[in-house]
Amino acid sequence: xxxxxxxxxxxxxxxxxxxxxxxxxxxxxxxxxxxxxxxxxxxxxxxxxxxxxxxxxxxxxxxxxxxxxxxxxxxxxxxxxxxxxxxxxxxxxxxxxxxxxxxxxxxxxxxxxxxxxxxxxxxxxxxxxxxxxxxxxxxxxxxxxxxxxxxxx
Length: 153
Known about the structure:
Helix content is 68%, strand content 0%. It is an all-alpha fold. The protein has one domain (7-147): Ferritin (Up-down Bundle), CATH 1.20.1260. α1 (7-31) packs parallel to α4 (123-149) and α2 (35-61) runs parallel beside α3. The relative contact order is 0.16.
């Protein structure tokens, strides 16, 4: 993501990042044995593939309007309190979800850096929308995590 100088470069980099996320989850799918974790990973793969399609459509139309428009509640910041975990054959759905949330958190941080780096250019709103899209995904994961693994909250 270092050689970005225009809208298409920005979206190509974002598309590649989302494809890498798909590949990460496909690899995880081949590692885990727990059926619930496999189901969760399959959902993540579908979501990341949807992101790829959204970004490709935005690139084709030169329009980021349809990406990342949901108004988000305040960040639950659950990932701040969780330790990174590697996905293994014995990973539980909870561990898979932690890895996914950490992955989304990393993407948000990357896009936030790009927003600052491209401030005042045509790429600033592009990276802002990409960051927003990742925040939406993280928000969804954190809400599911809270619902499933923090029932007292």
